[in-house]
Write a structure and sequence with these properties.
The chain is an alpha+beta fold. The chain has 14 helices and twelve strands. The protein folds into three domains: 1-21 and 28-46 and 257-409, no CATH class; 48-242, Hypothetical Protein Pfu-838710-001 (Beta Barrel), CATH 2.40.320.10; 410-547. The protein has helices at 34-44, 96-99, 142-152, 214-226, 237-242, 260-283, 289-306, 313-349, 359-382, 385-398, 411-435, 439-462, 468-507, 513-536; strands spanning 16-19, 22-25, 48-59, 76-77, 81-91, 103-108, 114-120, 125-131, 158-173, 179-192, 198-209, 230-231. The strands form two sheets. The protein has an eight-stranded antiparallel beta barrel with strand order 3-8-7-6-5-9-10-11. The chain has a two-stranded antiparallel sheet with strand order 1-2. A hairpin with a 5-residue loop joins strand 10 (179-192) and strand 11 (198-209). The longest helix is centred in the C-terminal third of the chain and has 40 residues, at 468-507.
């Protein structure tokens, strides 16, 4: 069926990349970034994507359809069209997708034959991804498999339900003959294959919006209710076929008492949700996905480190090192993104007569190779059993399984003390950086300060409900250090890239003047950021009560 228009290719022209407090406008990507964006556009147009907004109604008998033309805004109803649809639904043997209200099917018949992946957006709305039928009826298209890998975690996708539908479709038209919605009267025969074989048949109505709005759905609710027809309890035909199963434990359910765990568990659940939601976006290489997934991992790592006494040994000895691994892998891909933006920016800002030699071409080739290599490593990591087992541990953390008895202490007593310890570590890192005189060691020490400032910021934000004003001041002070040292770290990475490119260019007999000039400008940028850092560090208190 034709629904909303396919998703547009990622909008790049009016966005910025951010690192620290630096912003690199993508409007300057003309020369270096064009190759990357063209590849992204081609990939996203390979299938078609849409949003599906619909409601389903349970029909217990053969009662007639009410007068649909009486619905507000409907001018006329087209004559019915009968379709025969056959669909095979896929999931893991454990029904991992069904747990997340995700539907993956291969359908033949009708106007939208092909593979369909439906992802929940709200109670009435789902995002739907389409791929062609292909030649193998049991080979899930690679793109759709990537989109659900964070849930399937290496487990095979197998047929779980065969479903045949005799569908009678009526188009509801507006005053200008625009299609407001499709009304479908479905007679369904389903054969469940797992967990145990079961055959069922039922009738249901489905109203799917095209150019109509939610008021049409609400009017239909009232019209059908007057005829004794109510909304279906099953969100999909697949859910109906699989039957009622025990609901999974909520990942965000906090302990019943007002405890430290009551604040930690919802925070971990939020970090998990962001990680899981960004995983398919990273696989699709959508803008800002790597950055957002990396931040969710960093927040989780920081919380585990800060609130260590409240968490089990498993969280520290197994989960945190694995989060560090995937975080560094994401970081390499993110750094490559930032360097592409940086290169475009610095070359655009230079005078034409000071850009000597084929520097733009060399930068584009090398940074693209760096990006491709980092992305390849990241893709391999996301498809590894190591990553899938990490996700299992993240689930356990987010459900509260890794809390220790100490987490039962009152939040206002236990958590501020642990934040004070984190502040002390930040101040110690500042002292070490002040004592590091060797330039390379000094850069590394400042990077450690930045990481500690980030942990302080995340910790303050996590316990903000306990002491709102003080945690806000602390988070603001820590953010200032994090951002200014983010600029410093960007400069460190940029100088490393310039040195490498300059060496290669010199070996090739090219003019290296511009590389040296840019290196000097980056050195000056680092010195400016250090001066800002010296002012910012004075705002860090010795403890939370001093904020």
């Amino acid at each position: 069926m034709s629904r909303t228009s396919p998703l547009s290719p990622p909008k790049l022209r009016d966005e910025v990349y951010r690192s620290g407090d630096s912003e690199y406008p993508l409007t300057r990507f003309d020369e270096i970034h064009s190759a990357l964006t063209s590849r992204t556009y081609t990939r996203h147009m390979a299938g078609s994507d849409s949003r599906e907004i619909e409601r389903k109604y349970a029909i217990a008998d053969s009662r007639p359809i009410p007068a649909l033309v009486s619905l507000a805004g409907v001018a006329r109803v087209q004559r019915p069209r009968v379709l025969t649809l056959e669909a095979v639904y896929f999931d893991t043997a454990e029904l991992s997708l069904d747990e997340q209200h995700i539907t993956l099917r291969r359908r033949t018949g009708g106007d939208d034959a092909g593979w369909h992946l439906k992802l929940p957006v709200s109670a009435d709305e789902r995002s739907e991804l389409h791929e062609p039928l292909g030649t193998d009826p049991e080979l899930v298209p690679a793109r759709l498999g990537r989109m659900v890998a964070v849930h399937t975690r290496g487990r095979a996708l197998v047929p779980v339900v065969n479903l045949n539908t005799r569908r009678t479709v009526r188009r509801l038209l507006g005053p200008n003959d625009e299609i407001l919605a499709f009304f479908c009267d479905d007679e369904v025969e389903a054969v469940r294959l797992v967990p145990s074989p079961l055959s069922q048949s039922w009738r249901e109505w489905e109203l799917e919006l095209v150019d109509g709005n939610s008021s049409l759905l609400n009017a239909a609710d009232a019209l059908f209710a007057a005829a004794g027809v109510v909304r279906s309890d099953s969100p999909s035909k697949l859910a109906h076929a699989l039957g009622v199963r025990e609901p999974r434990q909520s990942l965000s359910a906090p302990p019943s008492s007002r405890s430290a765990g009551e604040l930690l568990v919802p925070a971990f659940a939020d970090y998990r949700r962001e990680l899981v939601s960004q995983d398919p976006r990273v696989r699709e290489e959508l803008p800002d996905a790597v950055h957002r997934m990396r931040v969710s991992v960093a927040r989780m790592r920081a919380a585990i480190a800060t609130f260590r006494p409240l968490l089990s040994d498993e969280a520290h000895s197994r989960l945190r090192p694995e989060l560090s691994w995937i975080g560094h892998t994401l970081g390499a891909a993110r750094d490559a993104e930032v360097m592409i933006a940086w290169a475009a920016s610095v070359l655009q800002s230079e005078r034409v007569d000071l850009v000597l030699g084929p520097i733009a071409d060399r930068m584009e080739r090398q940074l693209r190779r760096d990006s491709d290599e980092a992305r390849s490593v990241l893709r391999d990591a996301l498809d590894s059993s190591r990553y899938f087992r990490l996700l299992d541990s993240v689930d356990a953390l987010a459900s509260g399984e890794m809390l220790t008895p100490q987490a039962e202490a009152r939040a206002k007593d236990a958590l501020p003390q642990l934040v004070d310890r984190r502040i002390a570590r930040l101040r110690k890192a500042m002292h070490s950086a002040d004592k590091a005189h060797d330039p390379s060691q000094h850069d590394l020490a400042l990077h450690e300060v930045r990481k500690e400032a980030k942990k302080v910021r995340y910790a303050a934000q996590l316990i903000s409900s306990l002491r709102p004003k003080r945690t806000k001041r602390l988070a603001t002070a820590a953010t200032a250090i994090q951002e200014v040292l983010g600029t410093h770290q960007d400069s460190v990475i940029a100088r490393q890239v310039l040195l490498r490119l300059s060496t290669d260019a010199g070996n090739a007999g090219e003019n290296t003047f511009t590389y040296g000039r840019l290196h000097a400008l980056e050195q000056a940028r680092a010195e400016d950021s250090e001066a800002e850092y010296e002012r910012a560090l004075r705002r860090i208190p010795k403890h939370l009560d001093g904020a």
